[in-house]
Amino acid sequence: MTKPAWIPAPEPPGPNWDAFVETHPHGRFIHLAGFKKTVEDVYGLKPNYWLFQESGKIRAVFPSFFHRACLTGKKLISQPFSEYGGILFAPDAEPAERRAILSGLPLIVDKSREKGRLAYLEIRGFPDLGYGEAGLFQKIRLYERAALPLDPGLKLWDKVDYSVRKNVRKARASGLELRPLRTPEDIRTIFYPLHLRSLKRLGSPPHPLDYFLKHRENLGERMRISTAWLGKRPIGALLGWVVGSSVQITDIASDERFFAYRAVDLLHFELIDWAISQGFRLFDFGPVRYEGQRRYKTKWGVELHEYAHYCFPARKGRGPLSDRTLPARAARSVWRFVPSALAAKIGRRLRRELAI
What we know:
With about 350 residues, this protein is of the alpha+beta class. Helices cover about 35% and strands about 25% of the residues. It has helices at about 15-20, 35-45, 95-105, 105-115, 155-160, 160-175, 185-200, 210-220, 265-275, 290-300, 325-335, 340-355; strands at about 5-10, 50-55, 55-60, 65-70, 75-80, 90, 120-125, 140-150, 175-180, 225-230, 235-245, 245-255, 280-290, 305-310. The longest helix is centred in the middle third of the chain and has 19 residues, at about 185-200.
């Protein structure tokens, strides 16, 4: 019988890795092998993926990347360009086994230092961490995350707030048509211009176009983009991911000149309703960073959970970057004035530096 231990994941991680993620209640697209390939191809980060095995069976997976930044130094991140990451324990793992798995974390950090110099490990989100297990880490509370539990009997129309029903009625009465985007050309000519427009308005650097094109190539049908059209004009888009029993959204793009048509509400409603009809058990709205997001997401009947970053070993000095800081707020104000064409060119460098 093989002694339980952390071992480096094979390259590529292989179908057993993705099968483990797919059947896990906290498995997300950022845990899948396709996400790893996209980050390598687009941003050039070096992966550092580990498996915890017992008698040849996977009992936990841990994806991370080496990251070097001028502001935060050298570290491992699980996962960059996402709000969530960390270890996924086998769903049937008992507390004693989970403690044994976590006790191997120092070995991962030490072995990782042999591959590349680093100061610490930063885990973003870590929804699979129990409250009694958090003491191993320096915990830096940031926001909340919003999740809507689903079941086959859920009547979404009755679940949501009156204002959502009103906006969905308005969008339907306006004659909006919803269409899926399926091809790289769709992403290039329809989704990406909306992405650039939205992030400019929000004061955030955009991902490069090939980030989305590579996701389409590496993650296939798990990536779902739905768009809302007013006649021949696309006015809104919703990018989501289908993984196991959950649907997760990461990007909302819209043309602010057409906010009155309530395209985003209709896109959300139809995607959630579809998820219910297909038997999914969770709709993940992502983090709640500010009051406007809180008001919008709570209208859908979501549950709010704590969202934090976890560092190991504990950091001395600054914690992880947060958009609550004065430099981040100042950067957003400046970014709104950057022309979209220039933003698309330098967004890659800024995203890589911040790993967001």
